[in-house]
Amino acid sequence: MTELRPGELTCPSPEDTLESDMDCDRPIFSVSAGGPKRAGGAGAPSPAAAAAASDAESGVFSVGCELCAEHDSELDWFCGTERKLICVRCASVGSCQGHAVFPLAARVTAVRNRLVDVCEKIQLQALRIEKFIDHTLAAKEQNLQAAASRAREQVLARVGAAREALEEEEQRLLEEVHREEERVEQCLLTQRAHWSQALASLSQTRSHLVHTLTHTPDAQLVTSVQEIDERVEESEGVGEPCDTEQLSLNPGCSHSQLLRALWTTAVLLGPSARGSPQLKFDRRTVSPLLSVSEDSCTLTFLHRKPRQSPCYDPARFDYWPNALGSPAMSSGTHSWVVDVGQSGAFKVGVCYAALERKGSGNQARLGHNGQSWVLSHYDGEYSFCHAGAKVPLPLVRRPGRIGLLLDWDSHTLLFYEPDSAAVLHAVQQRFSAPLLAAFAVTDRSITIVH
Prior knowledge:
Distance between the termini: 90 Å
Pfam families: PRY, SPRY, zf-B_box
Region (Disordered): 1-23
Keywords: Coiled coil, Metal-binding, Zinc, Zinc-finger
InterPro entries: B30.2/SPRY, B30.2/SPRY_sf, Butyrophylin_SPRY, ConA-like_dom_sf, E3_ubiq-ligase_TRIM/RNF, PRY, SPRY_dom, Znf_B-box
GO molecular function: zinc ion binding
């Protein structure tokens, strides 16, 4: 056998090609109990083959147990280029000359070390997974049961407190309505008794005067003037009946801050909460000082006056920077949200369709007449405006969006903050005509949010 001298072969470190070699489909090394027959042993296994077989049975794999078919030399080298076992002559003068080769024993040692490392890592990973299952997940299951139980108790406690408060408020309001009903009934009975007696007295006086007129002789009639005057004075003293608020149920008897807050929250956040997706700016009403987006949902203030005024339209505001929404609202419950985060000066609210559109007077100015109700933000201050009266609204923070809720049946208009459902201002007003959403802006833009 020719000895392999240093410098004749390229022998990379086993670790350099270990990872790429492990991807090979064929075995990195092979073990065989038999091999090419040597001359002199008719079918008898060689000592190396017998040793390999013994090692295979014991679980210890041996190298150098096969012979090269071409050179009849022991396959104790490994060709990394062709990924096969070779002998020393294959590497020096054979088909693998110039390839990356290295001793098989070193390769086997590197692979075994790598497998030991991999097995240790797998074992550690398995231990971590086992610990995660036995400790972390088990603890999470226990915590889940405790947390779910606390959450249920919290829900029941809060709903119970709300239900108890609502039941108490319900009882108080029903008693208040009942007392108010009894008061009005007593007033009605008193008025009925008084005016029934007055009616009887008037009827008796009239009958007496008619009898005097028709049956008293002229001479006696002249002498009865004083008696007639007394009867007339008595009838005039009865007075005229007058309808007063005391004869009607006071609507304030059913008003409750708690009930209104709960009702508002239910309407705004409950399962049936809904907005008005069809609400948009009516282009016919938009002031020349404003521009409206293509989707009719954003209103922008124009810092420069447009060169050409739009064509005349009786519905258009020609002086104040106003615009109205459509459609009109005359029944049911309606809510919509306006994004005002970019504007420092705006108004949002409602108005009658008959609101004046022309001129610089207060009749066309939102919040300065009896036909509009708006929340206004100017100079950093918030206020509610109606009929020229201003109610300051001391808000803790500047809302980025403002919501409006109109409940026609209960004659209620609410301005609220959508993020917290906090009521900013409430209006109790018996509206007498259909309402339109009303807007004004003199800084940047506002947008109807759908």
